[in-house]
Amino acid sequence: MAETKDLLKLLERASSARVLIVGDAILDHYVFGDAARLSPEAPVPVVRVERDVLRPGGAANTAVNVRALGAPAELVAVAGDDENGRALARLLEKEGVGGDGLVVSTERPTTWKGRVIARHQQLVRLDREVDGDINAELEDELLGHFDEGLARADGVILSDYGKGTVTARVAAEVILRAGKAGKVVCVDPKEDHFSLYKNVTSVTPNHHEAAAATGIREADDPTLERTGAALLDALRSDSVLITWGERGMVLFSADGATDRIPTRAREVFDVAGAGDTVVATFAAALAAGGSHLAAAQLANFAASVVVAKVGTATASPEEIKEAVERYYEANAS
User: pTM higher than 0.70, yes or no?
Assistant: First the structure.
């Protein structure tokens, strides 16, 4: 485990790393309320709506998480020519995320996810989306914006939610061009797209995605080791960081090292968007020159902050610093 001062120094450096995010932008719509009775029309709860909240989701949430660290963030993604797309653009501007790379399509709606939450419990989720691959014209426009942002970036995140933005061509070109420019490339993957992510710096799947991608049923620690080794071999990446729910994370490195990082979360209300926080913090730390292990440890502390919040959320440097210091104080010998 890295020393407190080393992690805090890395956190400070990560706050100035410029990160370019490419992927599926989503508008998250949360309806919060209270449910105290069942409907007379059907056996479902009646939610008395108290407030509606719109938040950037998917790759947009990853970008917001990078920005929350203090780091400059630019997003390259596709949105529809609709009110949801305009709402997403306004949210990105409000959060300070560079949104000049938001490509507007007249043929596809903005991907939208609605969630109804009562008493900290999600009751239902509604999806409005077209998840087929974007066409060649949109790919060209997207890659043009990527090239512009790449010149300014220290690192790249490929945020793949399987909504059609990360096509085989987009993934190949992003990885190739970023690699030639010597940039860190981290991937938040979709399980059926793993073959697209070869020769990247790192991938950050959860244990379900990793198991699905390798066809290895992960039920225990030794099995997870085989899963990590299989992904490293197949992708030829420098590392694979598998998030493992309440058990924390496991970092598999190309040099053969395996590092288990126990969770630092004290309480968990909502894991939605936690993967975005992990890849955002991990990539920014790597782009700032941190080791894979130190970057993973920092990402683990950031995740412990966001899972204690309801809905897609972010972790500020102050919150991460507090989590790091609290852990070390509690475990001082």
Answer: yes
Return the C-alpha torsion angle 52, 54, 58, 59, nearest 10. -170
User: What is the model's pLDDT at position 271?
Assistant: 53
| Cβ–Cβ under 8 Å, residues 141 and 103 | yes
pLDDT for 79 equals 98
Q: Could you give the angle at the alpha carbon of 272 between the alpha carbons of 106 and 183, nearest 5°?
A: 70
Domain boundaries, the chain: 4-35+47-330
Residues noted as catalytic: 276
Dihedral of the CA atoms 75, 78, 84, 86 (nearest 10)?
60
What architecture (CATH level 2) is domain 4-35+47-330?
Answer: 3-Layer(aba) Sandwich (3.40)
For 121-170, what is each residue's pLDDT tens digit?
899 999 999 999 999 999 999 999 999 999 999 999 999 999 999 999 99
Instruction: Report whether 218 contacts 209 (CB < 8 A).
Output: no
Q: Is 318 exposed, middle or buried (0-12, 13-18, 19+ CB in 10 A)?
A: exposed
Q: What is the pLDDT of residue 1?
A: 58
**Cβ(62)–Cβ(279) below 8 Å:** yes
Q: Is the torsion defined by CA of 162, 164, 168, 170 positive or negative?
A: negative
DSSP state of 199: T
